[in-house]
Amino acid sequence: AKEHRDTVIRNFGKMLVQANIPLEKADHPAVQNFLSTHVRDGGAIPKASTLREVYLSVLFQEHESKLHSLVNGNSYICIIADETTDVQNRPVLNILFQLLSPINELSSEIDELPTPLLMQTVYIDTVNHATVSHAIIQCCSNFQIDFSKILLFVSDSASYMMKAWNTILSTIFMNCHHMSCHAHILALAGN
Known about the structure:
It is built from six helices and five strands. By secondary structure, the protein is of the alpha/beta class. β1 and β2 form a beta hairpin. α4 packs across α5 (159-172). Helix content is 46%, strand content 19%. It is elongated, with a radius of gyration of 21 Å.
């Protein structure tokens, strides 16, 4: 019974995260009433604070483990990096990996490739080529990526991204090429 209850709680938390539903919605009386009435062990769903403190870290570890297993195969990788700001205007670097088929399979259906995976979101104190390069290299190291398997680095054409590629990343990712995102270039041209 306890095992089933824990599974229900974990799956409920996972559903909220995947559907981008704030955990606080679990505290709403209508949600609590529905769960206790219609879901076996649904009345055991804890408040949002407990979901966040106890279950969210478990879900994160499961998700990170899944990402590790996905990228530690024989796939080649495209790194996509873009800097933005959060709601408090702090600089954030998002690092995504696009898994590519092994080289000899690239000639098959290219549109069957999986969607890019958000691997890491890094808050950066100072946005420059060194901090961006460090974050990307650290992300690759954390996921034990063979640098020779990185074939493409996609970024915007910001000067710090270009300098990160030209002075650091191009010397480490020896099989890799850089491509500026065309959407960014078109947006700049439109402005």
